[in-house]
Q: What sequence folds into this?
């Protein structure tokens, strides 16, 4: 039987996470009555990882001899996938109940080119990861005001809607959209591949939909942290993207601006903690502008969960309490992870 939904799970040195991802997908297919298949693609992780991946009950296992990046893994998976609806996902994602059904329904609307779920960072489902990260030259230069961005982010987390950009941890799309706009560009070795593809989707006249009724757990930054080549690959993708969309001059201007470190006015604190404030949220970011940010309601005292803390690299972390009604900053704190 031809599946209705094909899930492509791309992994690199993340066999354990891939196993949990596939298990959540298989449970979703069964519980939600969906004819689905799982296609796991490994990007040159080596023999030890390969042996672990063979034990995962995926419908297809594609073993690439080298690391073609997320873009190459997605493209190899799409070559094997048979469903009219496809889910593209990192290995470090766990689908929560109803997420597959909701994403399939979101992209069934013909004007929608791709949809993304609400990604939760911690096991308690408290911290929400960014919905619509800022894009464009102005945002790269840091010209994004916090309050309007915070209002927009809360609106998407709570009600969903159209977005200019979707985070690529999980993307749902119809096969026909790929037929129309093309596959991921494998010139991007790590990150920016989904941003480039989403630009093509929007230029083709499709909408991007953030759909919070679908929820997943994203173990953000964990698998990337164990790969020593991650930063070099990210930097190469960033240079390529900026050159392609802003030109050599635009890229040079951005890189010059990045060398000017500007820290916000912030109270130095001994731990990543913010007291409860009625009607407020906390923004958490390693970016001194706090854009984009992960966030949680301040209905009670907030302390960064240990599981999230463990995934962060050493360095500064910024926390800001802001009003939910208008996004206005109330207090900003800076904490240094040793």
A:
């Amino acid at each position: 039987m031809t599946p209705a939904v094909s899930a492509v799970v791309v992994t690199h040195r993340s066999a354990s996470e891939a196993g949990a991802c596939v298990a959540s997908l298989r449970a979703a297919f069964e519980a939600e009555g969906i004819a689905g298949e799982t296609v796991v693609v490994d990007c040159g992780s080596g023999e030890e990882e390969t042996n672990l991946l063979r034990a995962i009950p995926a419908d297809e296992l594609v073993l690439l001899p080298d690391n073609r990046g997320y873009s190459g893994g997605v493209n190899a998976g799409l070559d094997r996938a048979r469903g009219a609806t496809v889910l593209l996902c990192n290995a470090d994602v766990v689908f929560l109940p109803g997420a597959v059904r909701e994403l399939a329904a979101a992209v069934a609307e013909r004007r929608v080119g791709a949809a993304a779920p609400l990604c939760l960072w911690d096991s308690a489902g408290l911290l929400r990861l960014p919905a619509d990260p800022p894009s464009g030259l102005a945002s790269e230069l840091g010209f994004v005001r916090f309050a309007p961005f915070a209002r927009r982010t809360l609106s998407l987390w709570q009600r969903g809607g159209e977005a200019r950009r979707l985070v690529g941890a999980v993307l749902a799309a119809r096969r026909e959209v790929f037929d129309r706009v093309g596959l991921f560009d494998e010139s991007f070795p790590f990150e920016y591949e989904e941003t480039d593809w989403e630009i093509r989707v929007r230029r083709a006249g499709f909408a991007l939909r953030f759909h919070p009724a679908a929820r997943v757990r994203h173990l953000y930054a964990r698998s990337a942290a164990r790969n020593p080549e991650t930063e070099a690959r990210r930097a190469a993708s960033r240079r390529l993207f900026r050159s392609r969309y802003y030109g050599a001059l635009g890229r040079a201007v951005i890189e010059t601006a990045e060398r000017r470190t500007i820290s916000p006015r912030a109270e130095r604190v001994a731990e990543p903690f913010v007291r409860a404030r009625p009607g407020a949220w906390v923004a958490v970011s390693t970016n001194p502008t706090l854009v984009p940010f992960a966030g949680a309601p301040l209905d009670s005292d907030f302390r960064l969960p240990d599981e999230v803390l463990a995934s962060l690299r050493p360095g500064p972390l910024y926390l800001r309490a802001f009003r939910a009604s208008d996004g206005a900053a109330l207090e900003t704190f800076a904490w240094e992870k040793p």
